[in-house]
Amino acid sequence: LAKTTQPISMDSYEGQEVNITCSHNNIATNDYITWYQQFPSQGPRFIIQGYKTKVTNEVASLFIPADRKSSTLSLPRVSLSDTAVYYCLVGRYNQGGKLIFGQGTELSVKP
Amino acid sequence: GAVVSQHPSWVICKSGTSVKIECRSLDFQATTMFWYRQFPKQSLMLMATSNEGSKATYEQGVEKDKFLINHASLTLSTLTVTSAHPEDSSFYICSAGQGGNTEAFFGQGTRLTVV
């Protein structure tokens, strides 16, 4: 499973767009990129997954350049409730696991 | 999405006793479930893969005799922390996938405090 590198923490204000970039230089051809969100004392929650270019859902967008060595999670107009830790994972996941989590990015949204 | 439920949400036990944590897939069958441990301000660490009807596969450094895993049915995996010590206090989380879906569904976690 490819190793990932993310900023340890980020600060933002309500209503702003937040972009969290993840580096994964050793991503394999068949690997997908998946982002999870975790609130304190809760299990992680799936946000978005992609393989290349751009993926968008009701929560976020995921931008993946052509070389796939990095990816950017974009959260539009964040609110206080988006304060959480965001994890970027890379790999081929069958049956939902097994997942190797990196350090994640602790996002703090301020009023 | 699919639902994975853990029980209990929190537990306090005395040092030397054993504690059992349940992980259930409520609306799907899971032949494989995963157990993670998370210490404060740290990331999730995979402990073991729970396989229905067979022995669990433990990650390097995880004591299989201390963390007993049983996956007796397609909807239930249990993690028993045996002879618990204060250093076992942590947040334990399970996950499962739904068939070939690559998305993992996590339980809400169990906060274990050993006193």
Element order, helices and strands of chain B?
A: EEEEEEEEEEE
Number of helices of chain A: 0
Span of the ends, CA to CA of chain A: 38 Å
What is the 3D form of chain B?
A: globular
**Approximately what portion of the residues of chain B adopt beta-strand conformation?**
over 45%
Q: What is the radius of gyration of chain B?
A: 13 Å
- Report the count of strand segments of chain B: 11
Oligomer: heterodimer
Shape of chain A: globular
Tell me what portion of residues of chain A adopts beta-strand conformation: over 45%
Largest sheet of chain A: 5 strands, mixed
- Mean pLDDT rating of chain B: 93
Based on secondary structure, the structural category of chain B is: mainly beta
Largest interface: A-B, 24 and 33 residues
Biggest beta sheet attributes of chain B: 7 strands, mixed
**String of helices and strands of chain A:** EEEEEEEEE
Provide the descriptors you would attach to this structure in a database record.
heterodimer, A: 111 residues, mainly beta, five-stranded mixed beta sheet, four-stranded antiparallel beta sheet, B: 115 residues, seven-stranded mixed beta sheet
Question: How is this fold's topology laid out?
Answer:
The complex is a heterodimer of chains A (111) and B (115).
Chain A: E1 9-13, E2 18-23, E3 32-38, E4 45-50, E5 53-56, E6 61-64, E7 70-75, E8 84-91, E9 105-110
Parallel strand pairs in A: 1-9
Antiparallel strand pairs in A: 2-7, 3-4, 3-8, 5-6, 6-7, 8-9
Chain B: E1 4-7, E2 10-13, E3 19-25, E4 32-38, E5 45-51, E6 57-58, E7 67-73, E8 76-81, E9 90-97, E10 104-106, E11 110-114
